[in-house]
TrEMBL record:
PROSITE patterns: RAB, RAS. InterPro entries: P-loop_NTPase, Ras-related_GTPase, Small_GTPase. Transmembrane segments: none annotated. It catalyses: GTP + H2O = GDP + phosphate + H(+). Its EC number is 3.6.5.2. GO terms for molecular function: G protein activity; GTP binding. The gene is Rasl11b_0. Belongs to the small GTPase superfamily. Ras family. This is small monomeric GTPase. It comes from Podargus strigoides.
Amino acid sequence: AALTVRFLTRRFIGEYGDMEFIYSHSLTVDGREILFHIWDVPNSQVRQTEEGSSEEKRIQWADSFVLVYSICDRASFNILPLKIQFIKAAKEGQSQEKVPIVIVGNKRDLHHQRVVSSEEGRLLALSLDCGFYEVSAAE
């Protein structure tokens, strides 16, 4: 949620509840207006619905995926391969097009609490054919 709000408002808010939201935002890229609809789902809710109908609904709704983990939380990183395999099976099984997926390691500013290395993130993204970035929503 912090990363989504930072993208939409350019402000950082550190604490969020455990609720999902759908945000709409337009942005001009290369002279073209792009309309984003962002379905922001807290990790705790994703785990609860693991492969349930709610999770499938989100996957069918989306055109691309940004999966965010905390570099300070190994469990949030470890769940990514399963999530990505589930997304690919649901989306790519319907068509031959590759689904755009980006893995984002957040909290880069908390390097002193890091438990997942940048290299681990890059290697995971490479092995699963995803993009990779490390960021700090706070900075």
